[in-house]
Amino acid sequence: MADLDKWRGDLQNQDAETRAAAAEHLCQAGEGVAEAAVDLVKACGDEESVQVWAVAALEEMGPPPVSTIPQLIELANDHQSIVAYWAITLLGRAEDASSQSEGVLTELLLNAGDISVRERAAWALGRLGPESQAAIDALKTVADSDSVRLARLAEEALS
Amino acid sequence: MLTVIFTALSGGGVGGYLNPNMPILGPLVQGAREQVTSLVQNNENLQNIVPGQGVGAGLSPNAANSVQAVTNKRSPDKITIGTFNIQVFGQSKLAKPDAMSVIVQCIRRFDIVAIQEVRAKGDNVLPDLVKQLNADGSRYSFLIGPRLGRSVSTEQYAFVFDTTRIEYDPSSIATMKDPADLLHREPYAARFRTRTSSPDKAFTFYLVNIHTDPDEVKQEVNALGDAYQAILSQSPPEDDVIVLGDLNASEKQLGKLGQIKGMRWVVTGDVMTNTRQNKAYDNIVFYGPSTAEFTGSWGVLNFEQEFQLTRDQALKVSDHFPVWAEFQIWEAPKQGIFAGRLGNRR
Predict the structure, then answer these.
(1) B54 exposed, middle or buried (CB, 10 Å; 0-12, 13-18, 19+)?
(2) Rounded distance, CA B282 to CA B320, Å?
(3) Which of A13, B14, B110, B218 is most buried, taking the most CB atoms under 10 A from its CB?
(4) Residue of chain B whose alpha carbon sits nearest to that of A151
(5) Superfamily assignment of B27-44+73-345 in CATH?
(6) CA B192 to CA B70: how far, in whole Å?
(7) What is the CATH number of domain A64-159?
(8) Which of A41, A44, A52, A55 would you mutate first to test chain B, the one with the most B CBs within 10 A?
(9) How confident is the model over A28-87, as pLDDT tens digits?
(10) Complex confidence, ipTM
(11) Residue A144 burial class via C-beta count within 10 angstroms: exposed 0-12, middle 13-18, buried 19 and up
């Protein structure tokens, strides 16, 4: 889709209004926008006018294309928690297709500084279905967390 | 087993119409009330605007997908309650006159509407909307909740209502507490009453505004079942509790909320509520035996057809259409367990 490529390119533009317009177009593009999953996750770290549309697009997007999984795994470690949060969310939506992310998600579950990232990692591991002993042990550990939501999500992931 | 206890704490009223004995204020609710108080005061200043040309003039109501068309001319003995997810309702949408014109025309069809997805760091979105609504001499006002969300990207709920038709109980405004943290954006609730010549016989009702997280729908709609029960337990008792919003769930996915015996919802069958017409995620849910004020009329306001927009134009307004339901302005006789409790109130 030619427009999709243009909007993805515009997300890199130096002008914030152009980036915001691109994010809005992608949000309204409907089917096919999943190809822009990585661009939109990165755009979550942009200024508010861009971020709001990127987040809205990601909320409505289904599972990301398998080809984007390696980049999403990288973004799951982004220093901006909202970027990490959305990368993890898409990895969770990919379910079995993102099984290679289990190690990263396990690490984030235990050590991420932002509670929303840890919670999303627990949720995503539940969607993947934890297979490694390390992931299962990590989930058992946080199932005793003082954070009621984190503990519940870990329990659900183990069940 | 009730897995979580929701509480909808209310604050002490300052001139609220029901003047109940109020319990404690939670921090979240307190914040919301402070904001509401501030904005409502500002908003009152907006109601004396010189009437301008109504942006809705001349458009014919011909929404093919509406079960029944809701018209500009509202009935004096009925009210229309709506819900509208105005996708990313913030600065960029305010800056689009065409989109705002449609939003304003839609809201003017309703006596009160629950709005989801106010997304802006500034506080001008609802005041600016109400200013446009009142430009034709209307007297709309609003209530708005705190910013909610798990990340730095947050949303607010709002209620917009015609003050000539609806009044609210200031002590009832609350963002529900969710100690088990089951809901991404905790419901925003308030109690309203129709304005009539006999206030003691007027229809009173809670509206519970909700936008669920699309990644945790099953858990959240189950939690809404508990939230509904929590509102029912509030004092003073209210038998008419209407849950409305973007549930991200069709009528077949309403979980514990939909499993409460007697619960009914207006959007059913193959009626879709989103602009792309492939999902039915917005709804208005209430307990049928109690809320006998419902007239049976409801609909989806398909503004794409109504205002003869292209799909792209419609998507610039929102990816959701408003959903509405009509109710009598007079309180219906109490049913079942509510009869005694509410009977004591009067």
Answers:
(1) middle
(2) 8
(3) B110
(4) B180
(5) Endonuclease/exonuclease/phosphatase (3.60.10.10)
(6) 21
(7) 1.25.10.10
(8) A52
(9) 987 789 999 999 999 999 999 999 999 999 999 999 999 999 999 999 999 999 999 999
(10) 0.94
(11) exposed
